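User: Could you write out the 3D structure of this protein bound to phosphoenolpyruvate? I've included everything you need below.
Assistant: Certainly. Input first, then the structure.
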Amino acid sequence: MARRRRLVVGNWKMYGRLTSGLVLAQDIAEQAEAARPLNFDIVLCPPATLTWAIGEALLGTPVMLGGQDCHTANHGAYTGDLSPAMFVDLGCRYMILGHSERRYGHGETSELIAKKVEAAQLAGLTTIVCVGETAEELKAGSTSEIIEKQLRESLPKKVKTANLVVAYEPVWAIGTGQAPEPEDVVTVHKQIREVLGEIGETVRVLYGGSVTPANAEKILAEEEVDGVLVGSASLNADGFWAIAEKCQ
Ligand code: PEP
């Protein structure tokens, strides 16, 4: 089977104000423009407040736009929430869902995440569904059990394969500077494909958690890794591009 097109995603989390965000997005877009034609996909997920401005700045460039979380409904009396359709209006193509900072920081269950995935896919977004074990679960040897449970429960029954990306993000690796060995990432990615069953070979499976320009080459040397989801290192244009380039 031909290699799946790789994908690099920058998750800016709650970082970036209007000016700094625009400068960062423009610097990344310039590097992507200079490297055209790209043989991989590149997506920035800024804070929702910057989506419109950054979307304007990215128009006509190869860099795509995504959101970091959304509601299950397209409209309604939900103070403070944002709907999938709203992100689509702003030119978003991707949506991160089930990030551990949502699961553990906001008590989101896999059942809720599955509803979000369904709504976001229906709105036309490609959903990046995050799964990963905590340090305690790793220590207890229950990684595979956790991954299987989270993945099965976080996907809706009518999942659209073409709009699905899975990100393996061990919670203990996020923002800690500690990434797993590439062979351990491969083991989990293979398991994710097994759980996905017949769609497993076509769905892109990313790795996320302390990816840096220094370790990206080693991680992306693995055919099983279809790209990376990058947090902290995506806040520096040169560093993020150095990672992105390894997706070629
Ligand atoms: C993330 O939050 O998705 C992430 C991968 O963060 P970091 O790269 O900072 O570990």
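The chain has a mean pLDDT of 97.
User: Perfect, thank you.
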